[in-house]
Structures are given as structure tokens and as C-alpha cells.
Specification:
Blueprint (H helix, E strand, L loop, with lengths): L4 H20 L1 H19 L4 E9 L8 H15 L3 E7 L9 E6 L11 E6 L8 H4 L5 E4 L2 H6 L5 E2 L20 E6 L8 H8 L4 E4 L12 E3 L7 H6 L1 E6 L3 H5 L5 H8 L4 E3 L5 H5 L3 E2 L4 H8 L7 H14 L2 H21 L1
């Protein structure tokens, strides 16, 4: 069957639209055309400028935000792939538009940039993302959940969270951080069930994070903060790493970034049950529904053998690095730039 007709009509319609814009807004049309042409030439040369926009505030507290570490690791991967990258924190002074604006959707809604290629990556809090936000002029929309992408009515593409193969590497434990069970994170202002249950089961949980005094005895609190640079060693040095999810993330299959980080060093992880985790991590991540199941895991029962654990770690590192995510995002930006050039 011939396909000559529709593309010809599409080209004619596109040309007519460009002609109308040239008449009604000649200066703006020429400026946009030049910007798109320059952007495409930069990309064809292998490099584009990127602005990663995050919900972490533009102040000293950003160092405690997981979004900041996530963005820094992604920026490193994009830079390693030849891109020029900056991170824009919430409330930071405005800068010149980048070729690509990548919004990491966390706690706060961030608008697309009219002069950029716009990519949205919903990495957490899916219940806060309204239809009208998705309807904004994004070139591509990614979500960090396979099941949510399949169920979404607005054409989301799955792109799971990831970890840095350079920062999170298997290796020997750090004697100063050796613990039976470790958790790195805040309280979120609520009692976190995985911590409550592990302590009730008799685990000596070492907690790094602030505001825990209200919920656990000081015996369990090691520090109110652990620098991101020391987190990989903490996970390597623990017998077990604990994890849980925000309820909306758990319900919609948004696998926690902590799972990727801990899995990248080969840790054994106990987590609440979340759709998709078993397919990604295999036996590296174990969940429980009863206290007896949790106690058995804490005793070391039910975990993969050493050879199985190493094989699972290699698989996760190969498939779920920020380098792999950077390749996907660069390909998406390039395709969007080519499409924009044709408009």
C-alpha cells in the first residue's frame, strides 16, 4: 500500500504553518529557527547543553536531599557521554535556557522551558502529578515504574531509577561503618514500619538520619546525617540494608533509589513489597509479611548463595546504571531535536 499521500499532506501542512508564523511573528520565528538549527548542529556534533531541574531548594539543606545525589550522579553520566550539564535547584536564579531541560519530578511541580527540548522524568510521588501537568508541552514523559507506565492513559514511557557504578561499587567493608543492620534516611515525620518491625524483631539497627529521636531509642541512632560519599561504604559494610517506600510509590511500583544503590554494592536488602522489585533485583531484595519471616531473614535464612548474589549484582549493575539511563535520555533528546527542526 502506498504511503506517499499522508506524508505529502503533512509536509504541506507543516510548511503552511511555518509560513503563517513567519508572517505573524517574523522576528520570533527566525530566532526560534536559528536556535533549533544551532541546537541540532550541536547535537550532531555530539554535545548538547542540559539543565537538570530538581525539587531540592537552593540552600545548604540541598545536601540532605536524595534528589541532589540522584541529579549529581545522572549529571556525571551525561557528562561522561559528552554532554554539558548543570543542575538547577528550586528557587535558584534563572539562567539561559539549555538545549535540553530535564525535570526530575519529585516533591514539586516544575514547568517546562519554552526555548528547550523538554523531558519529564517522574521519579517519585506519582499521586501528586496531575493530568494538567502532563498536558504541558513536554517532548517526552518518562516514569520510574513499569506498571505505572502501562496503566497511564497519557503515553508515559518506563524509565526506572538507577545508581552510579562509579560511586556504588562492591568492595571490602569499612571497619568504622560495620553494622549488622543499617538504615540511611529520615523519618519523614512518621514511624517507618520497616524500622519498627526490625527493632521489634531484635535487630540492632544502626540509623543515619535526622529527627529519629521521637520514634526510636537513642541507642539505634548513629548520626543525624551520613554524607553521600560515605553511603556506599555503609551499604557494603552492613550485614543487611533496610528500605521502604512512600505509600503511593509502593502502590504504583516506583522502585526506590535506595534499592539500586544497595544492590550495586551487592548488599542484602530487606524492603516492603513493591511491584517490579523481584524482576529487577531477584533475591538481592527480600520482603516479609509476618514477623516470623522477618526474623528468619535477619538470621540469614532465605538469601541467595554467594555465587548467586554476585551474579545478580552484575546483572543489576549492567542494566540499571545512570550510564544506561543517560543513553536513553540522550537518544530521546536527539529525536525531539530532529522533530522540532522539521516543524
Amino acid at each position: 500500500m502506498s504511503t506517499d499521500g499522508p506524508p505529502a499532506r503533512s509536509r504541506a501542512s507543516s510548511f503552511a504553518g511555518r509560513a503563517r508564523r513567519l508572517v505573524t511573528d517574523p522576528v520570533g520565528t527566525v530566532q526560534r529557527w536559528r536556535a533549533r538549527t544551532a541546537r541540532l548542529r550541536r547535537f550532531e556534533a555530539g554535545t548538547m547543553t542540559w539543565a537538570i531541574k530538581i525539587s531540592a531548594p537552593d540552600d545548604a539543606s540541598a545536601a540532605r536531599w536524595g534528589d541532589m545525589a540522584f541529579a549529581a550522579d545522572l549529571a556525571e553520566a551525561l557528562s561522561a557521554a559528552g554532554q554539558n550539564v548543570r543542575i538547577d535547584r528550586l528557587g535558584a536564579p534563572a539562567q539561559a535556557p539549555a538545549d535540553v531541560t530535564l525535570v526530575l519530578r519529585g516533591l514539586h511541580r516544575i514547568a517546562p522551558e519554552p526555548a528547550s527540548i523538554n523531558l519529564l522524568w517522574v521519579i517519585s510521588h506519582p499521586d501528586d502529578v496531575a493530568d494538567e501537568e502532563i498536558a504541558l508541552p513536554w517532548d517526552r514523559v518518562f516514569v520510574a515504574s513499569d506498571s505505572y507506565a502501562r496503566s497511564a492513559s497519557w503515553g508515559a514511557e518506563p524509565l526506572l531509577q538507577a545508581s552510579s557504578p562509579r560511586r556504588f561499587q562492591p568492595g571490602p567493608p569499612d571497619p568504622d561503618l560495620r553494622e549488622e543492620v543499617v538504615f540511611v534516611g529520615t523519618t519523614r515525620g512518621v514511624e517507618r514500619p520497616v524500622i519498627r518491625d526490625a527493632i521489634a524483631a531484635g535487630a540492632k539497627v544502626a540509623i543515619y538520619g535526622h529527627n529519629w529521636e521521637e520514634f526510636v531509642d537513642s541507642f539505634y541512632i548513629r548520626a543525624d546525617h551520613l554524607e553521600f560519599a560515605r553511603v556506599p561504604a555503609a551499604y557494603r559494610s552492613a550485614g543487611i540494608v533496610l528500605n521502604d517506600h512512600w505509600e503511593d510509590m509502593r502502590a504504583h511500583g516506583f522502585v526506590s533509589n535506595r534499592l539500586f544503590d544497595a544492590a550495586f554494592v551487592g548488599a542484602r536488602i530487606i524492603s516492603d513489597r513493591v511491584p517490579g522489585a523481584e524482576e529487577v533485583f531477584g533475591g538481592l531484595v527480600q520482603s516479609y509479611t509476618t514477623r516470623q519471616e522477618l526474623e528468619a531473614l535477619l538470621r540469614g535464612e532465605g538469601w541467595p548463595s554467594e555465587s548467586e548474589r554476585l551474579a545478580l549484582t552484575r546483572r543489576v549493575r549492567e542494566r540499571h546504571s545512570f550510564d544506561a539511563r543517560a543513553r536513553t535520555l540522550i537518544a530521546a533528546a536527539r529525536a525531539a531535536a530532529i522533530t522540532a527542526r522539521r516543524r
